[in-house]
Amino acid sequence: MFTIFSKDFSDFFNSLVAYITIGVFLLVTGLFLWVFPESSILDYGYAGLDSLFNVAPYIFMFLIPAVTMRSLAEEKKEGTFELLATRPLTDWQIVLGKYFAALLIVVLSLIPTLIYYISVYQLGVIKGNIDSGAVAGSYIGLLLLGGCFTAIGIFSSSVSKNQIISFTIAVFLCFFAFSGFDSISQLLSLQSIETVITSIGINQHYQSISRGVLDSRDLVYFLSFISLFLLITKTILGGRKW
Amino acid sequence: MSIVVDNISKIYGQQVAVDHISFKVEKGQILGFLGPNGAGKSTTMKILTCFIPQTSGNASVSGFDVAESPMDVRRNIGYLPEHNPLYVDMYVKEALSFIADIHAVEQKGKRIAEVIELTGLGDEQHKKIGTLSKGYRQRVGLAQAIIHDPAVLVLDEPTTGLDPNQIIGIRKLIRELGKTKTVVFSTHIMQEVEAVCDQLVIINKGKLVANDSVEGLKSQYSAKSLEQIFVLLTNPANQQD
Questions:
Q1: pTM for the predicted model, two decimal places
Q2: Would an 8 Å CB–CB cutoff place B102 in contact with chain A?
Q3: b/e burial code for range A10-45 (CB count within 10 A of at least 16 → b)
Q4: What domain range includes position A193?
Q5: Is domain B3-238 annotated with CATH 3.30.470.10?
Q6: Tell me, what's the ipTM?
Q7: Cα distance from A207 to chain B (closest Cα, Å)?
């Protein structure tokens, strides 16, 4: 699995995907956090990284599918999947290797944002005025959210040979999983099970972890979500054997 | 027995791709796998390499059953698929290193150098695969198939689209490898078959129509060339005299 992981990870850097993704992510978050007046921390006046954590999921919704769209779709289209499938590699090793390679790119795009945290920390009226617990919780939430989106991305890549279709499906599923359920729960006819529906969506668990309290229910949710999509992906790959 | 194919069938929906074929290949033999396009050669090879499962029947490679021990089969087989899929953005050495890592090849650097030497890739080893000509790409595919020193080689049309010089090169290599390994390769070039193979299997529309040594077939259909025998067995209406 490590072989697949390191090959895919190097591929991201060779093909400039990594540079562009990380660069764009940092550029957009930087603009939102420090330049645009509505969401800028400097204008908001409060020492908090809320803007980052509000905006990041939406940026991830587009960037992560862009990173993952070629992982399996290209293998199937070029035929190199046959190359991998006739080697002593289990399907799980292939899926997990690619998943972790994409996830590492997500992690690498988040690490530089720690500079924002350090900046707000220093800029506070009293140094260290920022709610570090909430920030830590939010980072963990964002990481898990990134993990979910990556799993969706890998799944979408396995569904089609066409990268654009993979991308579109991934964006749609990410959006739906994140905010779709909140919107559905507001339909009048579903009022009685409103809380159940919102708890299927990622947003509710993301907000919950962002408060800084790591509820095991949220952790279980995220890990189950990721496992579910990776399991479906592995099953789809195994479909050639039916 | 290095390869045993026992009553293998593969059915896709309504279409019977492979229809109860059986043959055996002994260790160290070179088998020529012939048949018209669409006869079921590639499908049989994909079953042998555990890429797709058979609908019925058994097959084993080096004693390992393809259905029960696929990982062991894959470790003992070197496969060159029909369209020779390659990672075109990788450099030759990089791609070989990747495959070597998957197989946990010992003394990787040494083995890669050996394989590059064997397949004649010396001059091209620092180039990206995407920039190589077809002949060299075939050699890379072949290098990827032999790098882990498998006991059995399954090569699907290894000489398609190559110029005569390159074909002679690949043929020499197959003969060389055939001295110590079991080789199954499919081709449409009859002289190749006569020059290299010990055993011949001809498939038509999924069914086995011949399984014999080259001399055996020729004595059975006296005074006919291999090409004429092939046409006779697969498309009798197409015969010319």
A1: 0.88
A2: yes
A3: bbbeeeebbeebbeebbebbeebbeeeeebebeeee
A4: 2-241
A5: no
A6: 0.83
A7: 41
